[in-house]
Amino acid sequence: MTMPRDTEGLARAETWVFDLDNTLYPPSCRLFDQVDWNITRYVAGLFDLPLEQARALQKTYFREHGTTMRGLMTLHGVDPVQFLDAVHRIDLSPVDPSPRLDAALAALPGRKIIFTNGDVPHAERVMDRLGVRRHFEAVFDIVASDFEPKPSPQVYAKLAETHAIEPTRAVMVEDMARNLAPAHAMGMTTVWVRPADGSGVAWALDGADGGHIHHVIDDLVDWLEEIASAT
């Protein structure tokens, strides 16, 4: 169950914090699937494992450490910069340029920041592909968070401190429901981009039944256009 629509939270927003993957573009692009399998191949190569065993280990680290990378860093001393470079070598062609998203972001008052468990180079490539990079004043990535992933609460505090965000005047938009809980606890208005096309997976739905979600939407662009038309 979600909370009632917090329309006041949207009206007073000065800062809009957007997740990147499966949020700015729909999960039907399957872009993150490429990253996911690159991680599997990385783990397989690192430990000389068959892909099936590497996949299982990858998901164990994801569940126990927040990201597979964090598990590899903590338990095996993996270089995070080298890891990020390797796993983000992907084909961006499934993501189409989005003039509608570009226009919707242009019409959205306030500053906009990307908050991602990926890295800046990946975020910039995706934003360039979509044609929306000009709208975002900053990317707060996994490097900026000292490689501590969402939904670790201290990462949200560092985001707010680094970019002088007043949480009660901020909106966070995210496809992973559990990642909105710390934002809500800080006072942010929260927006969950629910996977509407059947392409969602369990980790995106985890936490969706909590009371920390103000808005549930199925399409980011439609929702942003609706906001623009109401102002």
Can you walk me through this structure?
With 231 residues, the protein is an alpha/beta fold. It has 2 domains: 7-27 and 95-230, Rossmann fold; 31-87, Orthogonal Bundle (DNA polymerase, domain 1), CATH 1.10.150.450. 45% of the residues lie in helices and 11% in strands. The protein contains 11 helices and 6 strands. The protein has helices at 7-11, 31-47, 51-65, 68-76, 80-87, 99-106, 120-130, 153-162, 181-186, 202-205, 220-230, and strands at 15-18, 111-115, 138-140, 170-174, 189-193, 215-217. A 6-stranded parallel beta sheet has the order 3-2-1-4-5-6. α9 links the parallel β4 (170-174) and β5 (189-193). α2 (31-47) crosses α3, α3 (51-65) crosses α4 and α6 packs parallel to α11 (220-230). The longest helix is centred in the first third of the chain and has 17 residues, at 31-47. The radius of gyration is 17 Å and the shape is globular. The two termini are 28 Å apart. The mean pLDDT is 91.
